[in-house]
Specification:
alpha/beta, 5-stranded parallel beta sheet
Length: 294
Amino acid sequence: MIRTRPQSNNNNNNNSNTSALQQWVHLDSQPFNQHNEILNANHLIMVAGHSVTISGHLQDAGEDETDWYLLPYQKGKGLPQTILAHIREGIQLAAMDPRSLLIFSGGETRATTGPENEGTSYFRVADAMDLWDEGMANGKNVRARTTSEEFATDSFQNLLFSICRFREITGAYPEKITTVSFTFKKTRFETMHSRAILWPSDQFVYVGVDPDASTGFNLEEATKGEMENAAKPFQEDPYGCHTSVLQEKRRMRNPFHRTPPYEITCPEMKELLQWCGPNIIGKEKVPWRMQQQQ
């Protein structure tokens, strides 16, 4: 039996839906690596993802919670405003350094949304809200120096996988890294993740950006939750794969059973990518440490 969907006679409704949806990418949109900008890149700017888009109308993604897939504990706490602030900060930082590569990092973390990833969601919001030429970014070719990392399931993988993504694109590892996320995650990135991969502290910068308290965000509450639910587990398990708590988080955040290709595309990182701790990996197994010794 062939069934046909009845056509709606509500022209007004159809017109309103059409006007609500706008085309974000055009033939004259700046293509990636338009003028070989990435050939001389040496600075990785990584924005860690926190959600995926679930709406076809993203022009108000900086304030409308329905544009994002949010879990109950994430609602009413200014997450749309935070995500927008993180995207903007990444773009402005990239505008200040023509040798930077901006990477939005985050995988397909929610089974309910289908195979939508956080990294690409952030890029789409930047397109939909036309953020590429705001402020200092005007005329700085930031869109041509921006891409996504689409496999990370936690903050450690945001950092580690983005380094490899940089290597995939430029053919070399970054000389410096700037990370953008919440202020309360600074300790996790600076004293746990970067140390676990033996990244030089003088080549790592952390930029914390929080929403205003008027959005419902509570820094004290968030900091307490960070210590209990993330910092403590990573203190015991620096690589996120030794304890059942962090193993389960990664399993739950990889519902589509994606396998990152980075052991193949970044062979120098293979031992680090496989390292599970709990002891810190040796310097001779990390490519950027080996480069320093040469």
